[in-house]
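Q&A log
Question type: sequence-to-structure
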Amino acid sequence: MARRALIALVVVGCLAVASKDWWYHLAFPLVEPCDASGDCGSKPRQLRVEEEVAHKMTDAQAAIAAKGPDTHFGPDAVGTDMWEETTWDDIISLASSTGYCETDSGGSCMLLGCAATRGGTECKSQKCMCAPGHCAFGGTCFPSDPTKCTQDTGGTCNVAFCAKSRGETECTGGKCMCAPGHCASSGLCYAVTDTGGTCSMMSCAHTRGPTTCSGGRCLCKAGFVAVNGVCMPMSR
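Response status: OK
Response body:
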């Protein structure tokens, strides 16, 4: 009888852990109970994990993560808590659309050259026009066929840090590379939000993290980027 009671307690405990903070365990490796010096401390392992996660997320990210993934689904579903900034998936959608490819970025080169933030441009008749193979979206020229995701922004960091204007970058081997969950286009890093999951017939899997269903696709919510199909908090 005592053995059965013990087994029952273990099962209940496992279910409690599985239902609570599931995303924390998925997104971050468990904090080791002891440090390098052998000091295990007095904090429970779960508390250590939660503190580690809280340290890595902003208040806004924590608030969104606490909501968990959306439960709505369908091919016409409208996403919530979505990115307001242009994402890599916006660029792909633009490139795959069958509509008109706008070539006028809206910029002027009457006095100065076209700003680097406008992407691949060339000055024509005092206007910043998209270079061949590019289309304008939100005032920036993006590749019309972004079939490959590259991390190299083209910037260097041998002497100084990578410019903040490039977005989320990491200095690797003297080069400004996009951080995980980002792709480079025209020298800038854009967040990847598409997890690869679908939600046309059912809601997004909880294991994908803080997602929202938009048009049948499982996309990461604002502040999170897709890394290996899971929404991870973007670095602060």
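Response note: The CA atoms of residues 153 and 224 lie 21 Å apart.
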